[in-house]
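Hey all, quick one. A colleague (J.T.) asked me to put the ADP-ribosyl-L-arginine job into the tracker so the inputs and the structure tokens live in one place instead of scattered across chat threads. No bug as far as I know, just bookkeeping. Sequence used:
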Amino acid sequence: MGSPFEGEAHIGRTHLSNYFNQILDPSIKVPFKPYTDDTAMTKQSAISLIENKSFNAQDMVKKFANEYFHNPKRGYGSAIGDIFFNLRRTNYADPYGPASMQFKGLGSYGNGAAMRVAPVALFAYHHCSDGDNHDVTPIVNLVTDASKVTHSNKLGYRGAILQALAIRLALLLDKDDFDTISFANELIQYMTQMEVGDDPDDPIDGGKSFVTKLELVKQYLNSTEEPHIEEIQNKLGVHVSALDSVPTAIYCFLAAQKPLESVPVDCKFHRCIHYAISLGGDTDTIASMAGAIIGAHMGDEVIPNQFLVHCEHSEDIRKIADDLYEASKPTKCERYSSKGS
Ligand code: F2R
Ligand code: MG
């Protein structure tokens, strides 16, 4: 739903409201919204987990690549295609190799691992918890492995971990007694541990911190006035890097828990998606990540049916979600359990 606006810096309020009014009007048969790389890769992550009943790096990258070669015109990041060509050329021998060589060995810090992480987070939550939902080690290990096949830069895979932890918390916490500040604080705690030992003077990524962004999220949530869109764009970010988009998606989810002056709609799910798109920039991806968090929190019954009517393959995706739930029923999960080997 966000893709028609991707890359726009300023989206008129009336223009966006008309867009949503059209989607919500059952008499208007606008063409469906084709899904972008976010959904393409999320779908393939889920299918790989379903078929293998566990994470299999080689299978997952093959599925990403096959989906990409089937239709490369889904707005993929400009560097990720090279990974798929290299993987295919080398017969997928080393699923982590091509990603680790990108950007002169620095790896991608794009939001591509975070935007597709929802099935991995849901699978780990259900499958690997060993009955202990307070232990985040299994989810962190699984997400790291599933991210590094394309995003080996620490900002890229940490962004995916943050998005996955947000999904996990959204699932865990009671929706009728939900405190947005506690949610942000918990994520700050996890990311603070992760950033221990980072060198603030590192010439490449020194000072680039998810904790700093999450502190800003908290500041906006505590403010009595809704922050200006320009403030969010400039300080939190609305770009294709994980650092400049994952905290923003989390903020969209949290801000939408209360009425928003800029998006006067009652339905929280609609408010969240609409607000995420209104920020401009990487609209498809930020709305997609915010949607994954609010979906985990509130369940699919809150998604307006008219949204689904216009989203390409929404019925297939519902079926994939049900299959993922079945496939993730706990068995034994030694690799990713903190109590495993
Ligand atoms: N790419 C886009 N949108 C651009 C416009 C698309 C247009 N609408 C169209 O139809 O063509 N969107 C998609 O990209 C984001 C996900 O990106 P992903 O998967 O992380 O890709 P990639 O290529 O790895 O990273 C994205 C860009 O970030 C910069 N970058 C990353 N790491 C870098 C590094 N270490 N050094 C320098 N630059 C780095 C590069 O410019 C990458 O191309 C989503 O928004 C998705 O929708
Ligand atoms: Mg995007």
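Adding what we noticed when we looked at it: The first helix runs from residue 13 to 24. The chain has a mean pLDDT of 94.
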